[in-house]
Amino acid sequence: MNTEKLPTERAILEESDVKEFIKSRNINFEDFYILEELSKIPKRILIMYFHNFFSFNRERSDKELERSLEFLKTVREDPLLGQRIKLNRLLLDFVRKYDWAVAWNLVSVFERIK
To answer: In whole angstroms, what is the distance from residue 26 CA to residue 98 CA?
Structure first.
């Protein structure tokens, strides 16, 4: 069994952990696209860049994500660049709508999904 692969798009919304997250954190329907888009990003990348990100940055997470996006604009030779930019943008959108603690919880949910 490949533990790297997350369930794809629509299937992600059917995962019990994701359903519970949506319900407990009052995630709006219009933000489901973020969950669907995150499911397209390899789990190892999510963990590599965001496992401790929100616990370290807390209330300034949005500023750190903005700074990271600015930095990524300068990167030239990174095979993961597109995925890193997409991941940062998705999480920045999510933090702006909710807060850092909900985003931290979101990352934890995606880490648990096999």
So the answer is: 9
CB 14 within 8 A of CB 51: no
pTM over 0.85: no
What residues contact residue 85 under an 8 Å CB cut-off, 6+ apart?
A: 69, 72
Domain boundaries, the chain: 9-112
Burial of residue 56 (number of CB atoms within 10 Å: 0-12, 13-18, 19+): exposed
> Which amino acid appears at position 33 of this protein?
Y
Amino acid sitting at position 39: S
Could you report the per-residue pLDDT of 19-77, keeping only the tens digit for each?
999 999 999 999 999 999 998 888 899 999 999 999 899 999 999 999 999 999 999 88
**Is residue 6 predicted with pLDDT exceeding 90?**
no
- Best CA proximity match to 107, nearest among 58, 36, 38: 38
**Residues contacting residue 56 through CB under 8 Å, at least 6 positions apart:** none
